[in-house]
Amino acid sequence: MSLSKRDKKHLWHPLTQHKLHPDAIAITKAKGCVLTDENGNNYIDAIASWYTCMYGHCNPYITNKVVDQMQQLDQVVFSGFTHEPAIKLSEELVKVLPNNQNKIFFSDNGSTAVEIGIKMALQYHFNKGEKRNTLIAFEDGFHGDTFGAMSVSGLSVYNGPFEDFFLEVKRIPVPNGKNLDVILKMLQDLISNHKVAGFVYEPLVQGAAAMKMHNPEGLNQILNFCKNHNVITVADEVMTGFGKTGKHFASLYMETPPDIMCLSKALTGGLLPMALTTCSQKIYDAFYSNDIAKGLFHGHTYSANPLSCTAALASIELLQSEDIENNIKTIIASHQTFGNRIKNHPKVKDMRQMGIILALDLDVKMQRYGNLRDKLFKFFMDNGVFLRPLGNTIYIQAPYVITKKQLEKVYQVIEDSLSIV
User: Fold this and answer.
1) Angle at the Cα of 14 (from 9 to 17), degrees rounded to 5?
2) What does each C-alpha distance from 393 to 47, 138, 210, 345, 420 come to in angstroms?
3) What is this structure's pTM?
């Protein structure tokens, strides 16, 4: 019996309505930028498997490091113990983070990284004797599937059944170069009328909102406003982190750094699950006390797993390597060339790019998970390219190791797909 048929008996897949989409494609092998299914079909992974495998699947530099670590120390509780991979990772990571980030808290995935960031922001004020219960977030943001992360997310397609149980959140539009005065007025009103604890945001690119982009100048003004009013800023860089925007982190485009950062996905090069919530010394100091109740009582069994830490260390080394830095520049230039080639196509409504993230909006109405979206997905897969359209948006976020030939095939398949729209 095929893997796809065996899958149906017990498995429940994420973001899937199984009555409408009963079949899952069984992948048996992945190497570099190529996925191989059980029938021997190959697909270029043009979204790096949800933006994780940025150095390619089964990257030997990462896997070899993890294999070596596996023989030495596989797992140990991180409450009361520590180990070299976690310590070394913290030392290397703070070198590439915004310069105010000084402390690192481990967890398992992007949602929990954000959850911890929210808890840090709320408890920061609580520990200082000031109860603040309101958070600010961007419209159309997405931050994960746990309750705090859902609360600050603005995409009701994911959150509808749970909205009655959310934290208190007020939303503002993203800065577009024309609405900053309006946003700052909204912020002033929110500060005046609510006890605002923190601002949670995706810097510069909102991933699940179909790669919606906003400008760094406006975001910097918002961060300055928050800083001046002691509103804790929480940058969700789960998607944008580790080179995708052209800098190591999107937050580096702003002069004002966040108080807290949330990291996952490409952190370990896609090899193992892990997440980090980093923060400034100011945040940490609010929890440092003789009063045990002022500690951050949050923990995960696999926090700072030595194998995951080792994968993250290897990934950071690759990110800073000359080869990867050159590859990123090549992808950025290639995207610009393709964008100029296709932007005037009658089926293309809008084209935008930041770093290696390229998105185009089709000039057609589509449901986020509708028939046309499914038709496009099938077209891409039938032509050997793995892409997942978001509504009427097709986007590329390929591994840094993609070849020019593979990238050109991705472009050509996207261009060819416009004939079926």
Assistant:
1) 70
2) 13, 20, 6, 15, 15
3) 0.97
